[in-house]
Amino acid sequence: MRGCRRIAFVVVLPALLCLSGPAAAQTDGFMIAYEADTTRPERVRVVGTLTNGRPTDVFEVSVTAEALNDTGKVVAKGIAYVDARIPRGASRPFSISVPVAAGVVRYRVVVSTFRAALGGESP
Q1: Around Cβ 111, how many Cβ atoms within 10 Å?
Q2: What pLDDT score was predicted for residue 74?
Q3: pLDDT tens-place string over residues 38-71
Q4: C-alpha 12 chain-centroid distance
Q5: Residue 25 C-alpha from the chain's centroid
Q6: Theoretical Cys-Cys bridge with 56: which of 6, 96, 104, 117, CB 3.0 to 4.6 Å?
């Protein structure tokens, strides 16, 4: 029987983080807290909150959840649209569905796309 395994992390991500890029490149003001609910038989539900710690608003934000095996290889992933606009300092919830895959030992969530505001667009 499959048990409930919850994983919570807070990470800071670079603006244009490549999905295969190193996890050590943690800058640019996004903070993500999330949990992976592995109790469902076909899909893992990754839920969390994205906080915009950047000095300006961000637009058209999407996040990607990656299921990683013991060598760090991505074996499954899911993508979710977060919001059209996230003001500086604001947070938004997200929920991502990831297919169940063999050998998964952890999950990682990254900002996959966003547009930064020009300096005058933030209140």
Answers
A1: 23
A2: 97
A3: 999 899 999 999 999 999 999 999 999 999 999 9
A4: 10
A5: 15
A6: 117
3-class SS at 11?
strand
For residues 123 and 41, give the distance between their C-alpha atoms in angstroms, rounded to a whole number: 45
Q: How far apart are CA 37 and CA 66, in angstroms?
A: 13
Grouping H, G, I as helix, E, B as strand and the rest as coil, residue 117 is coil
Q: What are phi and psi of 119, to 5 degrees?
A: -50, -35
104 or 123, greater pLDDT: 104
Q: Distance between CA 61 and CA 90 in Å, rounded?
A: 13
Q: How far apart are CA 69 and CA 71, in angstroms?
A: 5
Closest CA to 38 of 11, 65, 7: 7
Q: Cβ of 104: how many Cβ atoms within 10 Å?
A: 21
| CA–CA gap between residue 51 and residue 69 (Å, rounded) | 27
Domains of the chain plus CATH, in order, are 9-121 (2.60.40)
Looking at residue 119, its pLDDT comes to 63
Tokens of 30: 């996004």
